[in-house]
């Protein structure tokens, strides 16, 4: 690259704005049970990605609640986020975020961002992965990859909620390209692998066999339930009632925007619609119903969700 080209692609502060731009941030957490409580014993971070002090709203012998903080509030072209967490044997951790994650429009060079999350849960450990929703702005480009590795009798419950565009502001997701990758395994054996490209120019985006033009999707998973059939029945009964019309009752046909199933020991709840609030409420309600079945404790809503 010539000196002139290099000069043209940087600003007066030395920041790059060409296809080679890279702004990285990483976070590596470690949890272990010391015989009395779950402790956050390792916090390694680089760049604007860190955590608040751990909270114990369920008592010192309960789940350790940790909030992941990313002060910029979103990803722009060239951003690379790497999140890793390991929950040790017998430990219990709940990870969440204080606000929605925003995926901003790519720059004029169409440089992509990337976010990788790797979660490891050891024998007898339990992890709840409950981030707030992700909002992809029109023109955003990047890859979101989540990998969960379970060992032995480890358990996990989590969700991911994605909103495409901002239709309420008349700013739909009309251009750009996102790719979501998900891999969940136990003892090295894959239980659920998924790769989902989201491109408004692809017919899958609008086809009845694909996205159906919906702007919001959500997936909730639970692994380690003792009675999966009872869990499905509890969800169908609990989410089909209550008067808030989250997704219609079972058998509601076109009015029904969610479905639940179990495959290879993984309970999956899917939502496809047009409302972030509806998707979030559905996931939170499902978590409230499933948590007592997974860990014999009632749901304890993180305080950060109320701020």
TrEMBL record:
Record key words, sorted: Chaperone, Cytoplasm, Nickel insertion
Primary localization: cytoplasm
Subcellular location(s) of the protein: Cytoplasm
GO molecular function, one term: nickel cation binding
Gene Ontology CC terms, in alphabetical order: cytoplasm
Transmembrane segments: none
InterPro entries, alphabetized: UreD (IPR002669)
tRNA-binding listed as a keyword: no
Quaternary state and interactors: UreD, UreF and UreG form a complex that acts as a GTP-hydrolysis-dependent molecular chaperone, activating the urease apoprotein by helping to assemble the nickel containing metallocenter of UreC. The UreE protein probably delivers the nickel.
Role of this protein: Required for maturation of urease via the functional incorporation of the urease nickel metallocenter.
Family: Belongs to the UreD family.
Protein name, UniProt field: Urease accessory protein UreD
Species per Swiss-Prot/TrEMBL record: Halomonas sp. RT37
């Amino acid at each position: 690259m010539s000196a002139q080209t290099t000069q043209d692609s940087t600003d007066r502060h030395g920041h790059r704005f060409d296809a080679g731009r890279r702004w990285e941030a990483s976070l590596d957490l470690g949890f272990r049970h010391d015989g009395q409580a779950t402790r956050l014993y390792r916090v390694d971070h680089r760049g604007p990605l860190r955590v608040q002090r751990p909270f114990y709203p369920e008592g010192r012998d309960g789940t350790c609640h940790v909030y992941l903080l990313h002060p910029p509030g979103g990803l722009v072209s060239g951003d690379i986020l790497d999140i890793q967490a390991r929950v040790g044997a017998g430990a219990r951790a709940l990870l969440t975020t204080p606000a929605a994650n925003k995926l901003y429009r790519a720059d004029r060079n169409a440089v992509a961002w990337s976010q990788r999350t790797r979660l490891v849960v050891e024998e007898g450990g339990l992890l709840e992965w409950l981030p707030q929703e992700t909002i992809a702005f029109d023109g955003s480009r990047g890859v979101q990859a989540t990998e969960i590795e379970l060992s032995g009798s480890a358990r996990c419950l989590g969700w991911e909620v994605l909103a495409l565009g901002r239709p309420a502001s008349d700013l739909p997701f009309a251009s750009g390209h996102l790719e979501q990758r998900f891999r969940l395994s136990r003892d090295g054996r894959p239980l659920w692998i998924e790769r989902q490209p989201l491109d408004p120019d692809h017919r899958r985006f609008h086809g009845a066999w694909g996205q159906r033009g919906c702007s919001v999707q959500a997936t909730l998973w639970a692994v380690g339930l003792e009675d999966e059939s009872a869990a499905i029945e509890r969800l169908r009964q609990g989410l089909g009632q209550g008067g808030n019309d989250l997704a219609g009752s079972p058998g509601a046909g076109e009015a029904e925007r969610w479905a639940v199933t179990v495959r290879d020991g993984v309970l999956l709840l899917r939502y496809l619609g047009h409302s972030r609030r509806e998707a979030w409420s559905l996931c939170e309600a499902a978590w409230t119903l499933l948590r007592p079945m997974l860990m014999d404790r009632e749901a304890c809503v993180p305080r950060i969700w109320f701020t």
